[in-house]
Amino acid sequence: MSKVPMTVRGATLLREELDRLKRVERPAVIQAIAEARAHGDLRENFEYKAARDQQGFVEGRIKEIESKLSHAQVIDISELQINGKVVFGTTVELVDMESGEHVCYQIVGEDEADLETDRISVHSPIARALIGRLEGDEVSVDTPGGKRMFEIMTVRCE
User: Sign of dihedral through CA atoms 150, 155, 157, 158?
Assistant: First the structure.
């Protein structure tokens, strides 16, 4: 598996989720399975089947997070000299050249991406078009709605 880029914040959030899954979710599922077994016939026991499904989900997520963390390339952007260049972890303010609308995105790892908090995945079309560009550059981005032109107003570390 190749390196999985993530910010320090993203790595911390994954470690917290892993800890919660191991310390809270896993024991709760084991307890639910034990209680469901106590109800008798497992072939027609909905609670048992639901608990086993939940156990599969929890164990799968634990393995997924452990794999990502073992292959993580944690990037502390506060240590980078960006000089106005868009790199992983930077926050980029853009202006849509057609509508004049201003948008601001932080480029983060897949697990950290959340459009509601203006964090976009490094693998998104916008991020791929922005990486390596400089403040003042005009960038064409292929979006589901067609090509859009943006101007990079500012690039900063946050």
Answer: negative
Query: CA–CA distance from 22 to each of 9, 71, 96 (Å)?
Result: 20, 20, 45
Among 77-81, 125-129, 145-149, the range scoring the smallest mean pLDDT is 77-81
How far is Cα 63 from Cα 1, in angstroms, rounded to an integer?
Answer: 14
Kindly state the tokens that stand for 105.
């995105």
- 13 CB neighbour count, 10 Å cutoff: 14
**Spatial contact of 134 and 86, defined as CB atoms under 8 Å apart:** yes
Q: What is the dihedral of CA 100, 102, 107, 111, to 10 degrees?
A: -110
87-110 tens-digit pLDDT: 999 999 999 998 999 999 999 999
Q: What amino acid occupies position 93? A: E
- CA 36, chain centre distance (Å): 35
User: What end-to-end distance do the CA atoms of the chain give, in Å?
Assistant: 29
b/e string for 134-158 if b means 16 or more Cβ within 10 A? ebeeebebeeeeeebebebeebeee
Q: How far apart are the C-alpha atoms of 83 and 74, rounded to whole Å? A: 21
